[in-house]
Amino acid sequence: MVQRYGIVQLSTGEMLRAAVAAGTPVGLKAKEIMASGGLVPDDVVVGIISDRIDQPDARNGFILDGFPRTVPQAEALDQLLKQKHLKLDAVIELRVNESALLSRVETRVAQMRERGEEIRADDTPEVLTKRLASYRSQTEPLIHYYSERRKLSTIDGMMAIDEVTGAIHRQLVALGATEPKVRAKSAARAAPAKKGTKQSAAKAKTAKKAAKTAKKPAKSAKKAAGKAVKGTKKAAKKTVKKVAKKAGKKAPKKSVKKGAKKAAKKVTKKRAKR
Ligand code: AMP
């Protein structure tokens, strides 16, 4: 979805894990709560989201992943969006059997281990049970909250990843929440490449090529124009030469001929008189 729509994914879980790893005050507050499967206080996550939405990369739109998780968070989000003159396009509920969640957590643990990444402290069967309990008591009421506001779309999260992606996309299109091509283009325009990145190097290359191509017609036009001017000069020179030839050769001949005719006439007249 990030690639398709050119928008950012804002995951409160990821942001909190980064804060824990960096040992920030927020991270220190959240660490134990997260490890036990509870929910971090509302004001903490609302503050994080409010700051993040203001970042330039979120200008084109964003996906809130794992937020809001409580009714007070949803109310705070409504307020935030109102203040920032933003509109919530849709709320997507991914419905998954609880039994499937445990095997997904196990798969994630195995994949993270394979990649050599640090395993999440809350990815254990015991903490998962607690997280599910937090979900039921604090997050599930949001289904009612958003369906009452006609914002909720429920997608079957038991399907394969690409099928879930397709279903979300179709739902967003049906809601008129997105115009993929237009948004993707404006996203590319809105997010210029950062200096020093691979992307910026590639962009610079393309820009250079484009500039060269743009300059080429100008250069060849100049050349063509120069040729045209030169050609005219040459042609003019040729014409002048031709004229000079005519004047130098034929004119004297003609005048000589004329003179001879006149002289012959005079002689004939004189003879006739005699
Ligand atoms: P997640 O990565 O979304 O599974 O979140 C991991 C943990 O971060 C959760 O179990 C909570 O402890 C905490 N967390 C993430 N998002 C929120 C939120 N919106 N409100 C409260 N706690 C959150």
Largest sheet: 2 strands, parallel
Summarize the amount of helix as a percent range.
over 70%
Mean of residue pLDDT values: 76
Strand order of the largest sheet: 1-2
Let me know the CATH homologous superfamily of the largest domain.
Answer: P-loop containing nucleotide triphosphate hydrolases
CATH fold description of the largest domain: Rossmann fold
Radius of gyration from the alpha-carbon trace, in angstroms: 42 Å
Structural class: mainly alpha
Number of domains: 2
Query: What small molecules does this complex bind?
Result: adenosine monophosphate
Q: If helices are DSSP runs of H or I spanning 4 or more residues, what is the number of helices?
A: 11
* Sequence stretches where pLDDT stays below 50 over 5 or more residues: 180-274
The CATH class of the largest domain is Alpha Beta
Order of helices and strands: HEHHHEHEHHHEHHH
Biased composition (Basic residues): 205-274
EC number: 2.7.4.3
Family: Belongs to the adenylate kinase family.
Keywords: ATP-binding, Cytoplasm, Kinase, Nucleotide biosynthesis, Nucleotide-binding, Transferase
